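A brief tutorial aside. Many learners find it easier to grasp structure tokens once they have seen a single protein encoded end to end. The record that follows does exactly this for Matrixin family metalloprotease. Read the sequence first, then the structure, and try to relate runs of similar tokens to stretches of the chain.
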Amino acid sequence: MRNLLNLRTASAPTTPVAALAALAAAVAVTAGIAAPVTEGPADAHDDAIVRTAQTVSYQGISVRIPAAGEGVQAAAESTSGEISLTVTRAADGAVVVKTDAHRHASKPAADRSVAQAAAPSTTRTDSAKTCTDAAYSLSGWKLNDFKWYYNPAGAPAAISTTAATAISAGTTALTSACGQKSLGLTPAYVGQTAATPQVGAAGNCTGNDGRNVIGWVAGSGRWLGMTCTYFKTVNGVKTATGTDTALNTQYKFFTSTANCSGAYDLQSVVLHERGHSLGLNHVDQTAHASAVMTPALSACTIGKRTLGLGDYSGLKSMYGTK
């Protein structure tokens, strides 16, 4: 369910009192003064966009309103679906909020992960379409220079020695799929860092230092991974200036194909989050179940460690091939 709200051009209040309140809030936003919390229109699930003078929140994730000519997206791969919140501020100060929420029709993936004592399944959902379904959706920006860092602090003990390899594999998997030409993007691992991903435990994007860090956070929300991407608009072209990803230690991850019980494949989660960093958006779970950029990821499966044709096609439309 997508929702679009222009904070500057919302419908005018119908009463004098409401008009005065709206004017005061607008003045506060323009001046950068803290304003009372107000709520935007609810989506089909009755989830309101909550905004103040400085932040916008939606379904447990939040971002700070960016400077003029800039934008930020928070994308959370949740155990009950997936949520994204994109806030853009035009050069004239107008703030536009776009939300995108996908919820599982049945129980959340985390709740469906009944203890499985066998090796993780390698079967890809609707695998027959993996290399024939070319559907994709774009967020609107490119990340032209993807140098990234890994902060191992807080990594779960069970995968502390293998996490870096799985994260690297998930990132490298961005470059090709389905026997097609290699894509014209080259993610480059710089090394480990003490800098933390600028993603708060509460599911908030906390800032942009331009370092592109992936690491671990004990998140309070129901999300496996969350990516915050910042971008700027110059002459109508959006370019990402920084992207950080947090992996939630409140959930179990695995890196090998050994016995699995209620854990999620780290490489698959990373590949999905990297898709967000590079400008891919979600596609419909039912219609395009084989794609990496669907909102659902079941426990104890490794079938989404590589791009589907649609994921590849979306990246190709932005980055071309080598």
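Self-check: Helices lie at 16-31, 109-112, 163-172, 266-277, 309-319. If you spotted this yourself, you are ready for the next section.
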